[in-house]
# Entry
Amino acid sequence: MRDTIFCVMSVLTTLVLAIISLRYVKDFYLLSLFYSFQIHLAAAAAVASGIALLFKRHWYALLTLGASMVLVVHGIVMTREFVEPAVDESRPALFKLLSFNIENDNFANGADIADMAIGSGADVVNILEAEPVFSELPRLLKTYPYYVGCGVGMEQCDTLVLSKRPLIEPHIRSLGLLWRNRLTISTIDFDGQKVNFLAAHLTKPYYDEFHGLEIEDLAEIIPSLPGPLVLAGDFNTSILAPDVQYLMRSQGLGTASLEPATWPIAAGPFGISIDHVFSKAPLRLKSVRRIKSSFGSNHFGLMAEFILDP
# Structure
């Protein structure tokens, strides 16, 4: 019986480790969700290896335990690679951004989400799958009189960017080949300092290779926007995904010290961050925090503060 349990635990652990290790050989889109959960799965494999050792002391369980710990540590290293230096708390923020995928059938909470956005103190609000707040737009425009999306620049109401300050030359374009009009590009002047804003909604990474094509489009667009830049939205994958790693590295994007988990809702702080706020120098993130409630969405929203380096 002990040998049987050991064998089952070892086989399951080996399969998990093999799946998440394939990223080091090839970025296979069907396994992208597993790549995003690398730390979670490797930690689970380490626990399983430890349990296997309790039933039978064998070199193979020690091997899988060691491999699991290596994958956990490397996953943590990858999440820390793009962290920007900490900002003095006393330093005032240049502006605040609220980014939230509210889920396109979440109509019961549209009014509450609008109330939250109005009272958030954010200078810019990025709402994805925004149809539930479309009826609240007149109220939102009293606080955020400038916007793009939901009838302005697009017929659909997937992406909505609201601002307290004028949006300079806002426009909307498509990413990849699957969905249309899921990227808004605009510039906002903060007392003489112009900042480029990109609000993106990427497709799920296991839908063929569309996610990778969308990342490639972003990698072409970002260099065409000189100066401080914000890229925020729903990437449907964590920063551990190989294509997101490529985007961050090739475009010099940075993150806060700890990206809050935004999905799945039931996992709370033990989930993963598939909603991101990235910055590009000389703009830097002062903080990123998760808003307290999901307001009925299947994502948590993010509130970010930014500063500008000389």
